[in-house]
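USER:
Working in pairs, take the chain set out below, taking as long as you need, and write a paragraph about the fold.
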Amino acid sequence: MPTSVPPGSFDRRRRTVVTMNTQSTKSQQKARKTLNKHQKSGTTPYFRLILVWGVLFASSLVLAGNLYHLQVVHSSELLRRARQQQTTYVNPYIPRRQVVDRNDNVLAIDRQVYTLYVHPNQFKSDSEAETVATDVAKILARPTADITDLFIDGFKNKKSGIRLAPALSEEVADKLRKLRANGLDLVREYSRLYPQENVVADVVGYVDIDRRGQAGIEYSQEQLLERSAQTIEFRKTGNGALLSGRIPEGFVHGEDWKLQLTLDTRLQRAARVALREQMQKFSAQRGGVIVMDVQDGSILSLVSEPSYNPNEYFNSDVNSFRNWLLADLYEPGSTFKPINIAIALEEQVIQPNDVFPDPDTIKVGGWSIRNAEKEDNLSLSITGILQHSSNVGMVQVMQRLKPDVYYNWLQKLGIGKTVGIDLPFEARGQLKNQAKFVSSPIEPATASFGQGFSLTPIQLVQLHAALANGGKLVTPHVVRGLIDSQGRLQQPSLPQPRTVFSPKTTQTLVEMLETVVLQGSGKASQVPGYRIGGKTGTAQKANTSSRGYRSGAVITSFVGMMPIEAPRYVVLAIVDEPKGIAYGSTVAAPIVKLVMDSLISIERIPPSQPIPEVSPSP
């Protein structure tokens, strides 16, 4: 059946359709207008889509290219920068090695000290500056007025960074910290400390403000004293904290090697006291003592006066820094006579029992040579020549030797060279050229009693050690080696001893030198119960600016050895320009006696014979 439609419904639907058609027409018109607009501007939705994808694709290409450059082209440079940011490099302070004597007594050590800087511009008022100055002056033991004026002037003129006091101890630094005062700044530093002060300064030396050695073994052994200061690399976190797992093994503790010397501080102190007493007694200019082991050349004592305090080297005379026992030359005089006798015995131009006439003077090449003291000796044996220190007798002994042979012997013994000691600034001896020595009769004659050539005191000790040890030249040295807490020792290599005399010759000389102490000029060196040998010397001083010798200026010396039955030690005492009745027998021999007394006690040397009892005075 046909559907019935309510009246008026058809019209409404028609109107609705018409309305919808109208709206659709408007949308289409609007779309056409938009399309026309995009067409006029040259864009379409498809074009925009393509454009977006193109931009994304291009961006991807740029990103990929950038990644390629970062990951491939610049990877090594970026990695370097990253590691640089994540890594820090530390140059740790590594103190110089300690120096100790043969008994492990500390001679030099690095210590932590502080330098006080003042910033007066940080004081709030004059009164605060004055109060702080009073407290600081009390701690530093300095005049209060001086420090107060400095602080107030600095406050008024806005000064800063005034260096007030260097090398302050930890104790003093703690007192300054407790003040909690404005304007005080303590900077931690390290300083070299010499606990023995001037006792071993002649050997140890000192370091300057830049911590560089300037004298002694601080200078000559700097390579052994300086530890390696290798830069250490640490990794760190983002906040700058060091990664403990990256700290190298041994960074905190390190090695504990010390430089050990052959010196004995006790003997060194005793030798210095004995030397100073004689120098004061005779108003001498300078002096020295050397004690050496004749078997290996190790030096137990080496004292040079005047000396200095290495802790305050800046207040000392610069001439004191030179150890004149190594750095200065002198003519040895009569102390060289035993060496000449050994040469003559080796060449067999004399025999131990030979006798020579001993007039007061002898003529050589137009020159008159006299004995130092006038004696009524008609003749002297070889031993007697040494006992009386006869110049005339020595001239006759050495005249039996051809001059060129004599000269070759002097060269063989090292005259004109250094001994190679491990201390700095050793001087080279002086010996005239061979042509002049051989052609002029006076040259061998003066050399026979120790004049006309020069050497250092340390070389004279080396030569007498050769007489004591059976004829071998050993190298004098003060460095024993590097030693650690476990007692392990690293010794430096030394030249092999060189034989110059036969044991038969040296044994003969040793016995002759004993008679010099028992019956001759060396009586002042006698030690009851001990067999000692030695030779005195009173040598003229040559002019430095002209030819000849200085009137009244002499160097007195005595070189002794002990014990005679098995010589182990050589002791030299030398005193320059003593006043009064000054001879090797009166000035130097008593020093050797005192040093030997100390040496016997320290080394516990048993007596050679029963010690005579001294009866008590009534």
Remarks:
- The two ends are 179 Å apart (CA to CA).
